Amino acid sequence: MICITQNIAGSLQDFLIQTSPDKIFLLCDSDTSRFCIPLISNVTLDHIIEVPAGDSAKTLQVCDSIWNELAEQGATRQSLLICLGGGSITDLGGFIAATYQRGITACYVPTTLLCMVDAGIGGKNGINLGGLKNYIGTFRLPMAIIIDPNFLKTLPENEWLNGKAEIIKHSLLSGNGWSELSLLGFPENNDIQGWKKIIESNSSYKQEIITADFTENNIRARLNFGHTAAHALEYLYSKKGQILPHGKAVAAGMIVETMAAEAFQICKPELTNEIKTLIFTMFDHVVFNEDDIEILNIAASKDKKSHSRDIVCSFISAPGQPCNPTGISESDMTKAWMRYLHETV
What we know:
By secondary structure, the protein is of the alpha/beta class.
């Protein structure tokens, strides 16, 4: 169930009345604890679990700490875990809920644009293995996803960009609104009603895909457009002790993978140029050098989507015309990295 509301406290309270859990736990991070919990202050909670903000919390060590805290606080299979936060919290919290006592009920309350339109929808839960994104995880849906666009008022600019990258991806995959988006861009950040419509459209699109292919055996894999390259870039940055925002990585990844598709004549050069033009009105160039390409290819070949010795990418031939995942060689991927490196500086 996905509920889009502008009364998060009331909607969450109604859900709790309907489900009647024996205990209510809330998982948040240091940011949502400060900025978002006040918006649900009327909800009675039995215990709050707080973790550090960001992807650094998605580790087995943090999971072990949370599992122990749930056990110490008397959580049972009839308990509820509310995951209040962005994609890192829903990834982590969904995995915790799927594995604690073989599964307890979860409810997601996304607080970032990225989580509202993409990360919080679809039932993919997971934690990182070293620098490899979401390598350990499950497919398991929460009982409810309650989205309130008013949480967007709490976001810094980089979090807006993370969500906008995924909206660009959805628009390219579905074809819905691509012409308007490429010409007019996004609403102003304070246009909550405009963003509510975008959230409704994007969440509905992703819901349709995951309903048709929940465990990613065929068409759901198309949603990975841009993500093979993006995850490789995030891995590279993590190895250097740096953080690359997910949205910026996905934006660069869509360009890299479209350049690769163009080399195979899967798409026309005009598509690459359209994508580059829109992305570089919002995102800076992702910096790496030629010596990094070997590491990038190693990371891309280890991505969850890959098979055999190929690097697997999900291309599009035109807006609204996604392709099934395609395996390309390391040599061909290197050419795409090189083109990005030299054409987009």
